[in-house]
């Protein structure tokens, strides 16, 4: 490789979006079981903002300087000596190891075992919107929630980046899908085939659901009192899966239901199946915005001000 440095977004200390720097950084070298990826795109994830803020410092301390970006799509340019499953030129995507430098850079290294061939029927940039969000939805619905055909599932904040993928996966599974959203996103949920749409700006969820559900996938940053009220909407034996807030486990136990605080994790088999569903036209990401790598600090800033919704794709290989 002629150049030894690359453009990257890095942080040198914990803090607000002001600590983000767009600068030169060394191109990483892949180990024997790793590959070097020329990054096409990454995508903004609230997890990256929490990492940067220091929220996870007690159990996931960062080594500075640190490059965020847990999602990647790109093309392999170099393989380690032990790698045989991939070769230079292969298009891949992945949910990267969160403790290592991420994809907000022109190049990133990854264990070959963590990579999946990118969907063929999707722009490689857009594929970066998929891994973490789709795996979050998949694991909540199927791994933790054991959603079955014909069951009733309530998805709160269903019009967001994870919610829209969860809706599509639940419909593919054959579930009856109920989704909450604001008035301006009703059309989106109608297009995705949501069976019952609850506009939380005009009606309460509890009043809108006279019949109980089998599973609740919570993506809404609601307070503990509101989350507690949702538990009463579940059948005995049902599950409340939340990625943004924890429900009262004692109340859940008294009602005969499970309350689980979910954290997504990389899973190659699941992501391979997700790629297959994308190529089959079953699911697609709803991308709300596309920005360039040098604009990532502004995305973090707007996120801090609650001005970012949906999936933001960060295009890396087109800087001009």
What report would you give on this structure?
The structure is a single chain. The protein folds into 2 domains: 5-130 and 286-315, Alpha-Beta Complex (Quinone Oxidoreductase, Chain A, domain 1); 133-261, NAD(P)-binding Rossmann-like Domain (Rossmann fold, 3-Layer(aba) Sandwich), CATH 3.40.50. The protein contains 9 helices and 15 strands. It has helices at 46-53, 131-144, 161-173, 186-191, 205-208, 224-231, 249-254, 268-279, 296-304, and strands at residues 5-11, 20-26, 34-43, 71-79, 91-95, 107-111, 116-117, 152-155, 176-181, 196-199, 213-218, 234-242, 258-261, 287-292, 311-315. The relative contact order is 0.16.
What attributes does this structure have?
alpha/beta, Quinone Oxidoreductase, Chain A, domain 1, Rossmann fold, 2 domains, seven-stranded mixed beta sheet, six-stranded parallel beta sheet, globular
Detail the topology: elements first, then pairings.
Layout: E1 5-11, E2 20-26, E3 34-43, H1 46-53, E4 71-79, E5 91-95, E6 107-111, E7 116-117, H2 131-144, E8 152-155, H3 161-173, E9 176-181, H4 186-191, E10 196-199, H5 205-208, E11 213-218, H6 224-231, E12 234-242, H7 249-254, E13 258-261, H8 268-279, E14 287-292, H9 296-304, E15 311-315
CATH structural fold name of the largest domain: Quinone Oxidoreductase, Chain A, domain 1
In the CATH hierarchy, what is the class of the largest domain? Alpha Beta
Count of discrete domains: 2
Q: What composes the largest sheet?
A: 7 strands, mixed
Q: Mean of residue pLDDT?
A: 93
Distance between the termini: 22 Å
User: Can you say what the CATH homologous superfamily of the largest domain is?
Assistant: Medium-chain alcohol dehydrogenases, catalytic domain
Q: Count the helices. How many?
A: 9
Specify Rg, calculated over alpha carbons. Answer: 20 Å
**SSE topology string:** EEEHEEEEHEHEHEHEHEHEHEHE
Shape from CA axes? globular
Strand content: 25-35%
Helix coverage percent: 25-40%
Total number of β-strand segments?
15
Sheet/helix structural class: alpha/beta
CATH arch. level architecture of the largest domain: Alpha-Beta Complex
Low-confidence stretches are none
